């Protein structure tokens, strides 16, 4: 993990499920929402916690949470100093969570907590790493909520080819190893399925209920569509060229140089055949500008390659994720290879993860010795 919050919160390994609630000016909804979550999860019988992340609320939500945490021992509250956005609230909740599974949902009570058991069941039955909700019957205004969402979903699906249809639904279920490796910045919460898919995780989608808002005001509108376009460019670049930026900038460089040579050849042809002097031909200047741009794009690509290597090597971070190892260390009691599931990226310099593998293998060796005895 490479976050300033990693290691700040003590993790409880006995927690089965963490509920992360990003909250911004939802004072009227909090008590009812917490009651609904408790009713569903107590009936389900799992060991859970609720992580409420107040994202700089100004309507009294902070006081409501402060009162609730005094009597609700399942509730944990994080107050952000100002409004950073939903992605930041999600990320803070992820770092503070302890559950083997993590659920995110909106605090406006439009997501139904009764969908949580169904999501957990599907995640386990289909052996998924990530499950996203799909609001098949949205209870929102068309012009200011549904239309911008449909446009954003169409743009993202067209650019990334993700199988997820409703990228804006906050009701999502994650396994622990996905949360540990997921980092959110800016307004990236809408792109979580794409980011998770980029990790090589097995993802799925499930139909969930969507209820009309009964209190509070919506925080979204048409303006978010333009933000999605900018964030989509970032995701497209990071997904395809994060570890090989020279492929993008070098490709543009070669294209620009080819155009420069073609224009230069045309200028020479016009000089020989038509007697057009270079200093009177604007195509010559255009070819020179294109050639200079080609050199600049190539230099930019090389600089990006250096930065990428510095980023990974300075943090001892691998450019890949390992989900499982097989055949390392001793065999199991039946003589079959021991399979070890790893939560984290693995490299020779990644001491915490390598220590996890060694401890697991050592435990398997003890199991093998005890079975022989």
Concise synopsis of the structure shown:
With 373 residues, the protein is an alpha/beta fold.
List the helices and strands and how they pair.
Elements: E1 17-23, H1 27-44, E2 48-54, H2 61-71, E3 75-79, H3 86-96, E4 101-104, H4 116-125, E5 130-135, H5 142-160, E6 172-175, H6 176-181, H7 192-198, E7 203-208, H8 224-241, H9 245-274, H10 282-314, E8 324-331, E9 337-341, H11 351-372
Parallel strand pairs: 1-2, 1-4, 2-3, 5-7
Antiparallel strand pairs: 4-6, 5-6, 8-9
Please give a structural write-up.
The protein has 373 residues and is an alpha/beta fold. The chain folds into three domains: 17-241, Spore Coat Polysaccharide Biosynthesis Protein SpsA, Chain A, CATH 3.90.550.10; 245-314; 324-372, no CATH class. 50% of the residues lie in helices and 14% in strands. The chain is built from eleven helices and nine strands. The two termini are 39 Å apart.
What attributes characterize this protein structure?
two-stranded antiparallel ribbon; 3 domains; seven-stranded mixed sheet; Spore Coat Polysaccharide Biosynthesis Protein SpsA, Chain A; 9 strands; 11 helices; 373 residues; alpha/beta
CATH topology of the largest domain: Spore Coat Polysaccharide Biosynthesis Protein SpsA, Chain A
Helical residue percent? 40-55%
The end-to-end span amounts to: 39 Å
Which spans have pLDDT < 50 for at least 5 consecutive residues? 343-352
Shape: elongated
DSSP summary: helix tally: 11
Beta strands, count: 9
- Our count of domains comes out at 3
Radius of gyration over all CA atoms, rounded: 26 Å
Side by side, the strands of the main sheet go 3-2-1-4-6-5-7
């Amino acid at each position: 993990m490479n976050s300033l919050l990693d290691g700040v919160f003590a993790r409880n390994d006995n927690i089965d499920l963490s509920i992360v609630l990003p909250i911004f000016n939802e004072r009227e909804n909090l008590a009812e929402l917490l009651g609904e979550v408790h009713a569903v999860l107590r009936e389900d019988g799992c060991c859970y916690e609720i992580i409420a992340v107040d994202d700089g609320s100004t309507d009294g939500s902070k006081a409501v949470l402060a009162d609730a945490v005094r009597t609700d021992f399942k509730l944990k509250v994080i107050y952000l100093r100002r409004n950073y956005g939903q992605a930041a609230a999600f990320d803070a909740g992820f770092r503070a969570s302890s559950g083997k599974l993590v659920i995110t949902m909106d605090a406006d009570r439009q997501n139904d907590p009764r969908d949580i058991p169904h999501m957990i069941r599907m995640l386990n039955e289909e052996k998924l790493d990530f499950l996203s909700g799909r609001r098949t019957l949205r209870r929102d205004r068309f012009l200011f909520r549904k239309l911008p969402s449909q446009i954003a979903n169409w743009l993202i699906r067209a650019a990334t080819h993700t199988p997820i249809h409703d990228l804006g639904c906050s009701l999502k279920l994650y396994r622990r190893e996905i949360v540990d490796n997921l980092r959110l910045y800016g307004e990236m919460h809408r792109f979580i399925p794409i980011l998770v898919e980029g990790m090589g995780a097995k993802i799925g989608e499930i139909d969930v209920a969507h209820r009309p808002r009964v209190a509070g005001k919506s925080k979204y509108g048409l303006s978010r569509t333009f933000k999605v376009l900018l964030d989509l460019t970032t995701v497209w670049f990071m997904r395809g060229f994060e570890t090989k930026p020279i492929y993008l900038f070098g490709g543009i460089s070669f294209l620009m140089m080819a155009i420069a040579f073609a224009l230069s050849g045309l200028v020479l042809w016009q000089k020989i055949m038509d007697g057009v002097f270079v200093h009177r031909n604007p195509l010559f200047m255009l070819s020179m500008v294109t050639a200079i741009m080609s050199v600049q794009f190539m230099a930019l690509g090389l600089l990006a390659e250096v930065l990428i290597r510095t980023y990974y090597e300075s943090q001892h971070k691998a450019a890949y994720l390992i989900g499982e190892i097989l055949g390392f260390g001793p065999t199991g009691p039946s003589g079959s290879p021991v399979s070890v599931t790893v939560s984290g990226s693995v490299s020779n310099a990644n001491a915490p993860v390598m220590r996890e593998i060694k401890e697991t293998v050592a435990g398997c060796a003890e199991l093998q010795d005890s079975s022989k005895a």
